[in-house]
Amino acid sequence: MEVDYDLPDIELQKVYESLAERARLLETAVYESRKNMSKVKEHNKSKLKMRTLRTQARKNKRNRNLETTLARSVLRASLRGKPRLSNNTFLKSVPFFHNLEESDLLAVCDALKLMTFEQDEVIIREDDPGDLMYLIQDGKVEIYKSEFQSENQGVSLGKMVNELIGGDYFGEKSLISGKRRSATAVAVTPVTCLTLHKDVFLKYFHNNSSEVEAATNKTAFSYASEEVSSFAKHVNNYDCLLSLKRNASTVREERVATALMQLMTAFAPELNVQDTIERMTNTLYSIFMCERISLYYCHWEQRELRLHIGKTKLTLPINQGIAGHCAVTNKLVNVPHVNKNEHFYGDVDIEHGFTTRNVLCSPVCNPSGKVIAVLQLINKRGGAPFSEDDEHVIKSVSEQMSLTLASQKMEEENNHSLTNYIPLWKLDKERVSILIKRFLGTSLPKTIPSEMVQVSVSIFYAGEALAETEWIREKAERTIPYMVVKFDQRVELGIDLSNIPRVARVIFNVSYVEGDMNIPIGWAGCHLFDFDQLLITGYLRLSLFQGECTPDIAAVASLLNDTTRPEVDFLELEFPEFEKPVIYTDYVPEEAEVDFFQEDRMNRSRIYRMVNKEISSFIEQDPLKPLSHDQKLLIVQTRSALITNPMALPKFLRCIDWSDRASIQLAYRALNRWATTSDPVVALQLLNYHFPDPKIRALAVSRLESLSDATLQLYMLQLTQTLKFERFVDSALSRFLLRRALKSPNTTGQRFFWYLKAEMHVKEVQDRYGLYLNTYIRQCSSLRRVELGHQMFLVSKLESLSKSLAKLRQKERTHALQASLNDLVLPAKFQLPLNQDRWCKGLDIARARVMNSKKAPLMLDFLSTNATSPPTRVLFKAGDDLRQDQLTLQVLSVMDQLWKAEGLDMLLSVYGCISTGKDLGFLEVVPNAETLAKITAGTGKNKFSKAVQVFDDKKLKKWLGSHGISRKETEQNFCYSCAGYCVATYVLGIGDRHNDNIMLTKDGRLFHIDFGHFLGNFKSKLGVKRERSPFIFTPAMAAILGKKPHKDLFKQFIQLCGRAYNILRKNANLLITLFSLMLSCGIPELQKPQDIAWIREKLMLDLTEEEAAEHFTSLIHSSLNAFSVQLNDFAHIYRRN
Length: 1137
Prior knowledge:
By secondary structure, this protein is an alpha+beta fold. The protein contains 41 helices and 40 strands.
């Protein structure tokens, strides 16, 4: 089962009063395809529901384009089968029930009662007493609260705040609290629910009420909010198209759905309508495979067609040419040979030196049916004329464009007219002004260093100050029982409102003043524009974080207002009011425009002579190396010479003065003109904290659209973390990731789900990530939802089991584990979060054991449903934060791909690792492998005799020769793998490298495990560094390669290291970018940009390839002669045994 939902629509009058509605308007027409409507008519049951939905839509004054979306939701429900799961299997997919013991779960299953509800039936009503909990099996339910009254079929409901589908539950809160219902639930479609009576509920859940309340906490984001509504509607619309494509009965239907899915990638909430039209036009080239695409605007009063190509404007009489004929007749025109058509106007070809062979034109009409534009395709590639299939596709595309153009007209009116708004560009003499009212210190200690309090006010873009910091001071009015400081002072920052970038951050630092010292109390911040792009006004109360906000923190902080602590300090502000709302707009008056190609007049020839010599050198510099003022000036002045170099775009954007509107406009003009590349490095760079501007980020995401699923998965970890940098929930990046997750649920969707789930304990992003999870789960199929639910069930049970085992003595744990697993009833068929490709049916309980390491991980063998497949062995860890291991292994995977792309396979064993929650996760166990510690220690009689074996250089070589595998094979495998890990661990600064963290397979593949320390964070004791070797390369390892550097295998090892090292150096930008995108992930050793400097330093980017290879050779000899490594290994084995 897969059920779609729609969100409450805003009345048309309100739509046209607010520019913020344009993103919603852009997409509602996607589902207007007349061809696809015919599918609905073929289903009698769907026809009846269609009429009901249409009547309801008209009654609520809904947008006419929503009707088709609703109809298709009904169609999908009627077309797809709805397999019914057993109650037990179903409950195991619902997280609410995961903490129940199996016996209790069976008792709950027996107590469940089945209830059905008709469409529009009220299931529960606000303020009524509650005695049932409802668990939805099929259908969709909307939740309303009486904050605002609205009418639906004569029933007063209130404001729609949430929507629920199969697997969701409601009504439990009143059972927990004993209070009346807090909301109204209405069946939007026919609904089937399982109900649980209050008496049964309290019997099985009263002992863990806190866990129940935690399970019932929904995201703080309401589906009635503007940004959430916009985001959810986009995802829902895309899912509808995806369903239509999967269920298409003809090639034509599939192509229409595919074309509209491609067209949806042009929509991003960060873009204005003109940007969207340009992106739609660019997308059409790949859909229709034609040479030219033109969009003629119809000006009926002047009887003209107007075409804009860059700064060139072409005007034709309304009835001239094939496009004119299309506009006048309001009919689609397909001309296979223009020379045989009486309406063809060839003067345009002559003027532009172009030859038109065939043309396909489609009228674009407004909702009343009037032609407002003509979409013209010219010259189908391959020589053939446009086909009948092309006609059907362009009809759907034209319908999509109709509301886009209507929104453009509204946007132009807002740019030029003062009727509804004041455009920001008109406030060129207004400064940024803020009234600081008072500070309330409710969490301060009883003893404070001073009664004098200071507030500093700064404004930043990407951590760069846009104006000088301003300070105000005032003595506290009182300090007990809490501090009150009344300021009532206005602060004016040295920047005009018209010059503010859309994502500027205002940061307030509050501190005590004691003499010349400032002692931080806390900080908070805010943005100046909301989701509707309106300037904030009036009263604002900010909750302070503890400590001080530096420019680095201002650049990467994902939350500016601390809503995570129960007791916080507050700063009260007031922003100026204006006669009308002030709206941010990209519009610039023509007299203020700067031509992108207009260079500075100073001695151009001298500048261009310098391009190849100087500019190339610092364009190729890594992202961490700052540009000087002169270098920035040079890049801006020679931008037209750099526009063909994709790698130069990030550098150019770093040179822009983001406190100057004209300079910002120059950056915007560059975005769509700059050369593109299939290499994702540039796009990933543009998504880091240096580039918070929404248009830049939207462009970066558009460059990722062409990535294959396999390539995308390499970077999913970073992209999911990057969602923290986004200004709003609805963004180009969030839409992109949800689209790709829905398109490939078993690969991209699987990773996306668990990457989000692993961060749900982080309070700063809990609400945002919770919304993304809810949206994804709601839109994926019911089967997929159950699969993910069963994965969560497994994680929950193993976590509970690990906690109980931790309380036992070590020797009792394995027996207790096996006994507990015997009582655990898993779903008949399930997947592991670690490996979605392999289906499991249970556990090999006899082989389960608890490891002896500090956190006592569980070693588990999961049995495959495929009788011929071996069990999947994993480690389940509870108590270790695996996010750092996950990041390190992901970067190792990227390194592996970089080497393979250069024809070099270093035989890395990049095992699977997935974090599933706070200090929880799975690790894949590499088969046929042992730690170097176990191989080295052997079977000595006591711990000293075992530890002293580390000084036996022949131990590893003997062990490799004892498994019946050819010596040549094991030596080659060892040579390549050892070289790969030497280079990788050196560049990443992997610490804690003792012989229990390095393993060797029987066929000679060496690999590292347990990446608890990286980026040069090495362990020390009593102030002495324990790890002084560049990387681990011991005499025992050298013995496998022939011991001496002059041996052929040793020479090969040195050459491999040098080559692998230089490949990484060539891709330094990518490696640095991957870590910079993770700055907000909360890993202790990756908090600020300076932490990434280790990689840049170790890659020695100023050296030539020959010098770099020689440098690494010297590191090999240094590591080989590092006696401290053997001493560390000796101490480790001695201590562990």
